[in-house]
Fold Esterase.
Amino acid sequence: MNDRAIAGEFVTETFDYDGGRPVTVYVPPDPPEAVVFAGDGKSISQWGRFLEAADVPSTMIVGVHGLTDENLRLQEYSPVFNTERFAAHEKFFVKDVRQWTASRFAGALPTERTAVFGASAGGELALALGLRHPDVYGAIFCASPGAGYQPTEVMPPRIPRTYLVAGTQEPFFLENATRWADALRDAGADVVMKERVGSHGGAFWRKEFLLMVAWAFGRE
């Protein structure tokens, strides 16, 4: 699938964070009207080529690469396992990468045109960052979230619009997504929850990602 012709470009920069952390950006051929910041960005950034064929506004993907060590990845992506490591990655992701993106690609987009995306453990990251930084991310895109980070009894007073999805063939993750959808709705949030025929994997998430972008940023 990655041999699809592309009009935009990919830019990769390696930051000093944690001994060297790459960030890969999909830069659309037209000036971006929206931007999605994503965990596990080595693979997620490549989905930009599919955005070009979709009926959505020009959208940039800023993909922060994740770790291959699953234990350390979970510590970065969920605030419940290692608070210091999560906080360091949160600062890098929310502040450093965003500032670099604005300076490198000529300006920052407003909150309502900015989203955070993640799948599986990355879905926990998207939820955590979106809920903690509603001034930065106007939308949360969450696919098949893990169960480490769960809704709290008292939810934040301001919650970004949230799009959740999980597959019928991944009941554990479907239960997690449904739990979050119910909690966010109870807190008064604007929530979409999709249950699809599918399992835990990239092709399923990539297809839904296009629908997420259309939902959040589609032209009126």
